[in-house]
Every structure is written in structure tokens, then in C-alpha cells.
Write a structure and sequence with these properties.
256 residues; alpha/beta; Rossmann fold; 2 domains; four-stranded parallel beta sheet; 9% strand
Length: 256
């Protein structure tokens, strides 16, 4: 069974800052250690190692402080600088794998770290104002949102759904009709990327598990994405559901 262990609210930010601090400590220890390792060697190499250590630690400190600055501003719902989204994208690409590794060493559930990144992304997107036409908003969800016993294939055409109400596909089609947005059901990341390329949306509401949401945030650059974690009462990838209020709130945030 998928226990869906995540953290909410203030704990997201506390865990995130804690792991960032540990990461910076490790970078400091490694770089200083390498510098000291060359101390007894040729003075030329020692000077190079010393200069490299200063440069690495300076860059790491700047990035760390900038990310913590953004996290704290998001924490207290303060306005966010324009460079924040780009920095968050960089942190997802570069910092996230390191934090996953550290989390594993500290025996953190990976979903705690994934939840922190998706929560920060959502806070950042929600802190901005948008004026996007409904036709340019795309709702993406994995096929496990459909009941496993359902014989009707909806990944090629959601209108094949008979709208029996036994899963959330019926409700999501209702949101598509109500707001005029696009709704698609995906079988995987490859199809999701193709759909985004074909439809060229200006905003995305992504519904998935924490792992797939992070993967999507890494793949899709330059588009505002609100990530909505699905519910998995029967375990991963089968008969999942979603909080429709969160999905509708995300749609309304992007609309004029």
C-alpha cells in the first residue's frame, strides 16, 4: 500500500531549509577537505585548490541563501521577486537529486522532499497573477484516475467516458465543460510531453503522484504549473482520485 507520507504547512518549509543546510554543510566539508588534502603537495596545486574552494563555497552560499530567501517569503506569503521561478527550476534540476540522496541517508520518505518542491512550486505560481484564456489551460491526469474495471478507453478520447460517476473522470469532464479548458488523460510521461507540444498550453494543472509531478516540473520549462497530488487509497497507479476543489481552484487562478 502507498502510505502517501508527506508533510504539510510549516513542516514543508522547515524540512526543506533543514536539508538545504545539511547539503551546504556537506559541500563545505568536501571542498575544504579536498583543499587540505593538497596542502602538503606542490604549492601551485594548493593555491588552485584554495581558490577553487573559495569559489565553490561562495557560489553554494549565494544559491543557498537565495533559495532560503524565496522559501521564507513563500512561507509568509510575501511578494516574490521575478527571478524566483528560474531559481526554483534550477534548484529542482540540480538541488533536488542531492536532497533526495540526503533524505535517503536521513531515512526521510522521498515523498516528503517531493512534497516540499511541489508545494514551493505551487506557492510560487499562486503568488503571481494570470490572465489566460480557458482554451490555453490544460488539465493533465494519469490514466489511473479511471477505475481499473472500466472497459471504456479514454486515453485517446475522454469523450468515450460514459460518465457513470464511479471515478473522477466524470467530474473532470464537467470542469472542462464548465470552464472551457482542455482535459487529457495520459498513459505516461512521453504522451504527456507530446500532448503539451501539440496543444501548446500557456498553463497546466497537473494531477499525479509526487514522483510524477516532480518529473513533470523538471521536464516542462517556462510554463506555470499547479501540481495537485492525487489520492491513492488502493496503492500507487490504481483507482486513484483527486480533490476536485483544488483542481477547480487552480483553474480559476489562471483565468482572467
Amino acid at each position: 500500500m502507498d502510505t502517501q507520507k508527506t508533510v504539510k504547512g510549516d513542516n514543508v518549509y522547515k524540512k526543506f531549509i533543514f536539508l538545504l543546510s545539511i547539503m551546504f554543510g556537506l559541500i563545505t566539508a568536501i571542498t575544504v577537505g579536498l583543499m587540505l588534502f593538497t596542502r602538503g603537495e606542490n604549492q601551485y596545486f594548493y593555491k588552485i585548490a584554495f581558490s577553487a574552494t573559495i569559489i565553490v563555497l561562495t557560489i553554494a552560499a549565494i544559491v543557498l541563501l537565495a533559495i532560503i530567501y524565496i522559501v521564507i517569503r513563500l512561507w509568509y506569503n510575501y511578494p516574490i521577486p521575478k527571478f524566483s521561478r528560474k531559481l526554483l527550476e534550477i534548484s529542482i534540476t540540480l538541488v533536488y537529486p542531492i536532497m533526495i540522496f540526503l533524505g535517503k541517508l536521513l531515512k526521510y520518505n522521498k515523498n516528503i522532499i517531493r512534497a516540499a518542491f511541489t508545494e514551493l512550486n505551487n506557492k510560487l505560481v499562486l503568488s503571481n497573477e494570470y490572465n489566460i484564456e480557458p482554451k490555453n489551460i490544460l488539465i493533465l491526469t494519469p490514466h489511473c484516475i479511471q477505475k481499473s474495471f472500466c472497459p471504456h478507453k479514454i486515453t485517446t478520447d475522454i469523450r468515450n467516458c460514459k460518465r457513470c460517476g464511479k471515478c473522477n473522470v466524470d467530474n473532470l469532464i464537467g470542469l472542462e465543460d464548465k470552464y472551457g479548458v482542455n482535459f487529457r488523460v495520459m498513459t505516461g510521461g512521453t504522451l504527456a510531453r507530446k500532448t503539451i507540444k501539440d496543444l501548446k498550453p500557456k498553463a497546466i494543472v497537473a494531477i499525479a503522484c509526487e514522483r510524477d509531478l516532480i518529473s513533470g516540473l523538471q521536464d516542462v520549462k517556462g510554463l506555470p504549473i499547479i501540481a495537485v497530488t492525487n489520492n491513492r487509497p488502493e496503492g500507487p497507479c490504481v483507482n486513484t482520485s483527486v480533490d476536485l476543489n483544488k483542481v477547480e481552484k487552480a483553474i480559476k487562478h489562471f483565468l482572467p
